[in-house]
Design goal:
Blueprint (H helix, E strand, L loop, with lengths): L5 E4 L9 H18 L8 H8 L4 H12 L5 H22 L6 H10 L4 E5 L3 H10 L11 E3 L14 H10 L6 E5 L2 H10 L3 E4 L1 H6 L2 H13 L5 E3 L5 H10 L1
Parallel strand pairs: 1-2, 1-4, 2-3, 4-5, 5-6
Helix pairs in contact: 1-2, 1-4, 4-6
């Protein structure tokens, strides 16, 4: 019997290289919103990523209102959340690719009998689009995809640990009996607050931002989010899992 009872996995930039694609889809929408509210600042994909990586669009709208001191009506928020989801799903369905090594490692875990679940901040249709496009959806039957934006009422967003606690409750496991893999500060903070042992995947920063950013994130996720281990490449996962189970 595997010692770890459930492997919980973030999706965006952990399983699937989706974060930049999603931010490409929502940058125009964000700038339209700012213009509508008379705010001069405009965002590029990179500056949006810098400020809001790891958050869902609803969380981002809350952050934008706070930062730029304007208010949206509840109906306006719902309208923008719905528009953004449609554009992101279309983009991911066309272009999403897996993080290097993910399909091979999921297959090994599946064969070894480890149950797996996706626990994401993103809306469920977006997560499902990413998993389907990359051909890894069969490792996560539909009920094993949990979304802070869709599964919770009211919706939430990491770093709030609610989605992790909800997933554990639904799966019938205690947080400390699981492990999770996260790439962002908000996701790693949610895991830490939920009491789930965390593997920090920083390889994605090497792909998109270079070695310096990768090391910076390794330090941040270890020091601030108490990551149990840092993973630079998915090939390292079996060894890290073995060490966690041995401790």
């Amino acid at each position: 019997m595997p010692k770890v009872k459930y492997i919980l996995l973030d999706c965006d930039n952990t399983l699937v290289l989706s974060e930049r694609l999603a931010f490409e889809a929502c940058a125009d929408l964000t700038n339209q919103l700012l213009e509508k509210h008379g705010i001069k600042e405009r965002y590029s994909v990179d500056s949006l990523l810098e400020d809001f990586v790891g958050q869902n669009f609803r969380g981002m709208l809350m952050g934008l209102q706070k930062k730029h001191n304007f208010q949206m009506t509840p109906d306006e928020v719902e309208d923008y959340v719905s528009r953004e989801l449609g554009e992101v799903v279309a983009k991911l369905s066309a272009k999403a690719t897996p993080c290097p090594g993910v399909p091979e490692q999921l297959e090994k875990l599946h064969k070894a009998g480890y149950p797996m679940s996706v626990v994401s901040t993103s809306a469920k249709p977006r997560v499902v689009a990413s998993l389907e496009k990359t051909g890894i959806d069969h490792y996560f039957p539909n009920k094993h995809v949990y979304s802070a934006a869709t599964s919770l009422n009211p919706p939430s967003s990491k770093p709030d640990p609610k989605i992790y606690l909800y997933a554990c409750e639904q799966l019938g496991v205690k947080p400390e009996e699981c492990i999770t893999v996260e790439d962002s500060k908000s996701g790693a903070t949610a895991a830490m607050r939920a009491g789930i042992p965390l593997i920090a995947y920083v390889g994605v920063y090497g792909i998109e931002d270079g070695k310096e950013k990768m090391e910076q994130m390794a330090k941040l996720l270890t020091e601030q989010c108490k990551a149990t281990a840092v993973m630079y490449d998915w090939k390292e996962f079996p060894e890290i899992l073995k060490k966690i189970e041995a401790s």
